[in-house]
Amino acid sequence: MSTLAIFVLLYLAASIAIGLYAARRVKTSGDYTNAGRSLPLYVVIATVFATWFGSETVLGIPAKFVKDGLGGVIEDPFGASMCLVLVGLFFARKLYRMNLLTIGDYYRQRYSRTVEIIVSLCIVVSYLGWVSAQITALGLVFSVLSKGAISMPAGMCIGAAIVLVYTLFGGMWSVAMTDLFQMSIIGVGLLYIAYLVSGMAGGAQNVVAHAAAAGKFDFAPAVGTKEILAFTGAIVTMMFGSIPQQDVFQRVMSARSEKIGATGAISGGVLYFLFAFVPMFLAYSAYLIDPKMVSALLDTDAQMILPTLILDNTPVFAQVMFFGALLSAIMSTASGTLLAPSITLTENVLREYFPMNDRQLLLATRIVVVCFACVVTVFALLSQGTPIYDMVGNAYKVTLVTAFIPLVMGLYWKRASNQGALCAVLGGLASWLLMERFGGDSIWPPQLVGLLVSFTGMVLGSVLPQWLRAGPGRRAHDAGIAGSR
């Protein structure tokens, strides 16, 4: 067994040990879901940062940057970081005060159980591609490290099992503690690799100057209606579609105060924006160091650019640092995105039909975590060949067209009604799906059409005569007695 493989195994063992140790704190479903609302600022920042810094940031974005420049990926570093900043500025405090267990609970309290169930199911579905992307990346890493001895499918199953072990028992406590450990590895590892690789490429200034001369920093769309709409749709999808996601919500709600939650979201967003450019710098450095290798991989498997660069051109210590950082990024995102939809499905869908006490809810959530892990692993196996970047990007379209408008207008527009929310959710979803199926020649991105229809549905549905009354959740909210279950 190689030295690199030994260190990777030790790292995986350490991550599992930290996750299982943190699981000792879980006594109730609240501990499992949001760490008992007790996390300090530095942990919240680490876990919010980990929300986004996953396989797409380390493998997918750098590959697209080398090929298409900043214009091909700007929606991720800018849109994702702006999402977190917006959460911290406009959503964190209001939602924290409502003492919610999940983001789905908001839709029940503000509107009705019908809206809660529909939106929650959409949120759960949106995670399939996201979690599958992390599982795919784990399979890629294990296959590379074993030099093909472990196949991609086998590596994906092994990776899913590792993440499942500590997420299953510790919930948000395990996610938070492993995130803190893994984000430390990412920070140290990537900065060290950037320093090493920049020297091989003639210095950081040379890399930046070469990329600028090649037009890689040009991100403004071409002056044309279709190009501007496509650019706007990509930015809006990442920025707004990510806000009503359970993983973002539970990280902010896990803070010990609303101020810490808001500050942690803003700080995590800024930190992500800065660090997201490090893998891009590494990938373009690879282009200067070994242009033939990069050109060949751009036509076959661009996600292999950074792993190939590190394995072929750096000493063992650098390889350990890189793959430690890569595994940290993938596992931190995978654990959170595995937990989030499982909690949403249990709390906001299953519990509506099968009443449970707190102990039964905790057990049911863990069972759903196992089931969801199996589903996303199968989905990942069936999606082999789909770029990681595309798998993640498509995830936010569902929540953009269904969940965003009812969330923001419910918080900031008093006239938003249950009828308006239903029109927004169903109208946004239907128009998006129809555009995806039949709007191939349209200049309008399907998700942008869905967002506009959702907004129109909310306004018209709320100002017209109310034929669809709110359920008991909304009436309780109006009476000022709504709270967490």
Automatic annotation (TrEMBL):
Cellular localization per UniProt: Membrane
Keywords: Cell membrane, Ion transport, Membrane, Sodium, Sodium transport, Symport, Transmembrane, Transmembrane helix, Transport
Keyword Coiled coil assigned: no
Regions that span the bilayer: 6-23, 35-54, 78-96, 117-144, 150-173, 185-208, 228-249, 270-289, 316-340, 361-382, 394-413, 420-435, 447-468
Top-rank taxon: Bacteria
UniProt keyword annotation of Transferase present: no
Membrane topology label: Multi-pass membrane protein
Family membership: Belongs to the sodium:solute symporter (SSF) (TC 2.A.21) family.
Name of the protein in question: Transporter, SSS family
Biological source species: Noviherbaspirillum suwonense
